[in-house]
Amino acid sequence: MGKFDKEVRLIEESGLFDRSWYLAEYPDVKETGMDPIRHYLWVGAALWRNPGPEFDIRAYLQANPDVKESGTNPLLHYAMTGKAENRSIGSLPGTENPRPIGDGVMEWRNDESIQAGICAREEAAPSPGDAPAFCVSLPGEAIAARAGELAFPPLPDYGAPEVSILIPCFNEIRYTLECLFSVRNALEPGGIRCEVIVFDNGSTDETSRLLPPIPNLVFLREKKNIGFGPANNKAAEVARGEYLLFLNNDAQIAPGTLEALLAAIRNSDVIGAVGPKVIGFDGRLQEAGSHMDANGMPTLIGFGQDTQAPRFNYRREVDCISGAALLMRRDRFLALGGFDPIYAPAYYEDTDLCFRLREKGLQIVYVPDAVVAHHLSVTSGKGKQDQSRLALLTRNRQRFLQRWRRQLLPLNAIRR
């Protein structure tokens, strides 16, 4: 019996996973065709979904902050050790959403934090709000016209660009254009010298018609989709910048982000890569860096939480940073051989890159002053397409574990 099968059995034997309830509460699970328990282990827990009416994930993590810090699946932790240790599940009769752990007196220094705390008593997380002010939204009917308005500043005749921004894409022309407008808006006149490179992974929409005419945009194209890692590798070979910023085409960059990332890594011999605070278009935190558990499962630090909470607003070392927005030196990236193609077409190549940097004794650093908005998995499908995506995740997780299991085990033993 494999490790994952043992985890499924532990969840089943806990008596706290209710298949019927889970399917009724989250109808999209049925569309994936996955077994509900396997879906919960792979996807549901990461999305803060409860396994049944008798176990509240947020309540358990509130009552047991060491479990939250470890990144372990809450129900799996309870089944393995929590029950024997008489751990409190944390929920109270009639209480569905307990208040999360606060941040002390810092949260009382402005009315907005107080209001967020009151809301958290009812919701255990900030309510979805408006998109951040720096975000660009293009009306679908005006895509072609707006593309004609876009231009990037020319590079000076002397010297190479300091940063090459690499944006791989496959269809989703609207998101790509919104990303490019955000980059244009973030570039200060006379500021950081940047080149912008879009790598079209065989798009079948208007991408190849609308983007090549944009002044001072480097446009590269493959006839077929070669995957996230290989596309970035090819773009990096063409790039001339001292630093590379890998940026998803469904992400948008805030003004000042490039400056903050460069300030953190420039002149440092110990930092291998830096990443920004990643927020959703509902205004909630998506990622303040990530850490890995011993099973090769990443946890997005702060997912769904308040972006202004003090615990997410100081620079710190993390296990890994999402390839949705990651900056590092070009020479280091090329010396490592780029993203490993064994993970193509997608998933875990960014995590693997961070672990290879760590193996060289370099740090992965989260920089909260840099901010990027990201549409999480906008291209994910349903049904068979979603099953294919989950199959890729499973395959690449196993490849990642085979390579890094020895490094993961002691890392997580310390956290426990």
UniProtKB/TrEMBL annotation:
Q: Which InterPro entries match?
A: Glyco_trans_2-like, Nucleotide-diphossugar_trans
- Glycosyltransferase 2-like domain: residues covered: 164-329
Membrane-crossing ranges are none
The answer on whether this UniProt entry bears the keyword Nucleotide-binding reads: no
Q: Which SUPFAM superfamilies match?
A: Nucleotide-diphospho-sugar transferases
Q: Which domain of life is it from?
A: Bacteria
| Keywords in alphabetical order | Transferase
Q: Does the keyword rRNA processing apply?
A: no
Entry's Gene Ontology molecular function annotations:
transferase activity
The cross-references to PANTHER family, in alphabetical order and at most eight, read: RHAMNOSYLTRANSFERASE WBBL
This one is known as Glycosyltransferase, GT2 family
Source organism per UniProt: Candidatus Kentrum sp. DK
